[in-house]
Amino acid sequence: MANIPEYMRVRQYVLDLVMAHPDTDERIASERELCKILDVSRITARRALKALIDDGMLYVKTGKGMFINGGKWRNHAFTIRKFYKIMLIFGEGKMVYLDGFFMDVMEHICSAFKHLPVLLQPLNLVSESDKTIEELSMYRPDAIIWIRPSSSMMNAIEFMRRTIPVCVVGNKPDSDLFAASVDYRKAGRIAAAWFLDKGLKDLAIAGSDWNTGIKNEIYEGWKDELKSRNIPARSCLRIDKEGFSEEMEKLSPELDGIFTFGSDFPALDSVLAKQKSKCRIMVDENYYGAYGSIRKPDAKLIIFPPELLTQAAMALFRTLSDPSCKPESILIAPSVKEEFSL
Question: Which conformational region is residue 77 in: left (phi greater than 0), alpha (psi within -120 to 50 degrees), or beta?
Fold first, then answer.
């Protein structure tokens, strides 16, 4: 089973020493001492140290040892003010590429932190799942923002919370005392209400993977709104390779309105364009789904607003900078925006 690369662990250990004493030309542990402390080979220790020398963090005094390069750091902001190391993780921590949704998340997180003494570390986990806690601990973050972690990551989150604040963003609201989320059930209600208030009653909600907590909450809210107005709800239309197009071709001529998710919209767009349907369409704000579409959606359901990220970031910073500030749960109301734009 793959573990964390040993040289990365050594490099991080030494880098933490550098960051702890950035303004002095201080001797650090030798290769031999690092091997003993961290139980690694000389080759591994040498590889880690060479990387730090190449980066200008360390320098060698012949016959005296390895020293922190104080000249690189002296009068740097790090030596004048406390900087907080905040780790940013998406999903299961394996997201090498970011789509439009996660680019937008990154943009707003960076915007919230860029004028604060924060070092933001986007992290892709390289270890196997049973090594997640070890890898997270290795970096010694002061705090973590975790965007929509899967249930398999909750054990690691709870472990890290024993020593540092971890803010979970964008998951289904629950009893978590330090989470930022949206009332997704209410989102389903206001989506249905948008159609109904326009006198459109022959409606459907279409999408894939209804077992996810967020989508199921939206569907339950959709049904709540229809029930409150004594309107029978259609069954969920499920996107799959075999049946979705055929099902939509049969049903869409009868429909006044359809809600679907941005990631599922391309499959719906091709059917509606073929039929030249005038059915009203609402999607969520997963931007890339409407790129290149033939039929533009009529409205957008905002279920991940920028203020969700801004408030989460600022709440996390307050818990770090003010010892009297306790973690808090944040719940944002969803909204609908007409005039869909990319």
Answer: alpha
